[in-house]
Amino acid sequence: MAAEDRTRTAQAGASGIVRPPRPRLDQPKAPRRRLLPEYDPEAFGRFSERIARFLGTGRFIVWMTLIIILWVVWNIFAPEAVRFDEYPFIFLTLMLSLQASYAAPLILLAQNRQDDRDRVTHEQDRKQNERSIADTEFLSREIAALRMGLGEVATRDWIRSELEAMVKDMEERRLLSQGESDEGDR
């Protein structure tokens, strides 16, 4: 009984007004009903790209040309009872207009998808270039630091030149000391 009172008090609040229960935030919402059927935009996009690729081939032009030639030849030379589109070929014009009205949006959709892919690729390339530039600058700084450090380190050539200078100096001293000792002997 006390639990029911607490539940009523919690729903009613301090003022006594009964409020509808709050939706739970730890659970997903129930899906809403939609009037239009749902479809996968990626599947539709892939389908439109396949159509757009086909419309841009020579095979499509050859097939379209053959169909139009057959249409015209049939409606000119076939017996009148089986002709379905007389000379101004209004039905053929309607079919071609219908095909064009569907082809144009599908081609635009395929181009938009390609633009999106190109944008992502461009962004990835830009980021890769930024990383490459940063790496190159880092390596340049490291090489400069190594060169500066090597300027302070004794290299093999420097040590060799110093030793040769010392040997030459010692020989000169030896010769001078021999020259003085020879003079002293005389």
* Average pLDDT number: 86
| Total of helices | 5
Please give the share of residues in helix: over 70%
Radius of gyration computed on alpha carbons? 46 Å
The parts where pLDDT drops under 50 for at least 5 residues are: none
What is the end-to-end distance?
Answer: 137 Å
Which series of helices and strands comes N to C? HHHHH
Short description:
With 186 residues, the chain is mainly α. 75% of the residues lie in helices and 0% in strands.
Structure explained in plain terms:
Helix content is 75%, strand content 0%. It contains five helices and no strands. It has helices at residues 2-12, 41-55, 58-77, 90-152, 156-185.
Q: Strands, helices and their partners?
A:
Layout: H1 2-12, H2 41-55, H3 58-77, H4 90-152, H5 156-185
Task: Spell out the key features of this protein.
5 helices; single chain; mainly alpha; 186 residues
